[in-house]
Amino acid sequence: MKIFISTLFLTILSLAFCHDHNLIIELPGKLESQKDGLDEARLKCTSWRVAGEANNLSPWKMIPKECVEYVKEYMLGRSYEMDIEMVSNEAVEFAKSFVVNEDGMDVWIFDIDETLLSNLPYYGQHGYGSEMFDHIQFDKWVLEGVAPPINPSLKLYKEVLSLGFKTFLLTGRTENKRNATINNLIEAGFDNWDRLILRGAEDHGKTAVSFKSDKRKEIVEEGFRIIGNSGDQWSDLIGSSVSMRSFKLSNPITLPFRSLDFYPDIKGLRIVQSCNGLLLCCSDLGNQRSRKYYVFNPTTKQFAIIPSVPGGRDVRKTICFMGLAYNKEDCVHYKVVCIRRAKANGVLFQIPDQDLTVAKVTSASDDVFIILLWGITRSSPYGGWFLKYQVELDELQVAYPEFKHKYLPPSHPHYYEFEVLDEVRGENEENTFMVVRIPGKIIRYNVFDKSFNQIYDLRKVFYGYIGNSEVHRYTESITYF
């Protein structure tokens, strides 16, 4: 629950009295705010914070630089304390209104970081959320065991204990931090809890939602009733086996997710692209032939594993681009785009379990690239790979001879000196284009009518080279202003 403080603007009215004592009021042409009123930037930062607390922001890694001072003032000032007090007071009233059963099976769950203990001293030394999150430095801070208590939460904790609830502390901290966590909690005034549940080795790779849902399920299966749950992240509260009532504490500093741990890929995970709140991720190590791809929603913690392009490892090694596509006219559906090189008049791919049905590339050109689509929804995959476009780049090679390597044979994997940086769907399908890098230039190539033009000269910067890992599509959102 948030408290919004409104400022009362007073308009000074000019009064004049005539001899006949009639009152004349001169109204101002427009209402002017006081000098210390909220300016546009502050209002935007307030909107950003509220959107974040409501879980409406796309994934973000750092607080917008324009809002760093705002967040600092909020966290160090009275507003943050009042927000926490409001939530804690509501939780106390709810706890008092509940008649605790005498069987000792009524439970209140507490998160630890930014719920019972404050890591604000750490974030104060690291730009109040304006710096990239550093797991190693944060773990060192946790092991020091000096985080102060959040006083309204301490008051709630003591009240819950006095009412007879079992108190379970459920945290994303790992088992190797158990002793430091226990000592820190006791030093901060928290004691007499019934269970302290941390991540074990068996929980590696689980999302916060999955981990906490699993632990709550185990608690319920033991016969306990989860009455209340307090946490600063939605991942503390949502999922399965939820409490009778949950209480979300304010926290504009901590990231909504800190790591890509939604799937235990032994080669690690990295982000390839983001699109309207979804992340396309892939295996961090290994070549294209063995790489796996995933679509991950960091808000709901749901993910989908994208099936490999049919045709085996030899086909997959010809992939030169993987990305997400989004049609704003059909906001439910997302598609994964795959662009790969294909042999003219050769087999595109074989569709399994469909009587050996095959699709073939038919072209007189030796240089053919195909765009495949895989259709998915936010919650689960459906459909399969299908051919969307067939692209011949003959004219592009004539206009830009540097497209091909001078000293390598056509059979060489690096014969074509280009990268597909992105595939963009226009307002109409006819405006769909690829963004291609060739030595010294970035080219826009329309896959529908085969037209193209240079959109950037890389020779002015970057020494003529830039890779697809350094190029990102610009999307205007509330996060950046």
Automatic annotation (TrEMBL):
PANTHER family given in the database record: ACID PHOSPHATASE, ACID PHOSPHATASE-LIKE PROTEIN
Range of residues in the leader sequence: 1-18
NCBIfam families: plant-AP (TIGR01675)
CDD domains listed in its UniProt record: HAD_VSP
Protein name per the record: Acid phosphatase, class B-like protein
Keyword entries, A-Z: Signal
Source species of the chain: Artemisia annua
A GO MF label: acid phosphatase activity
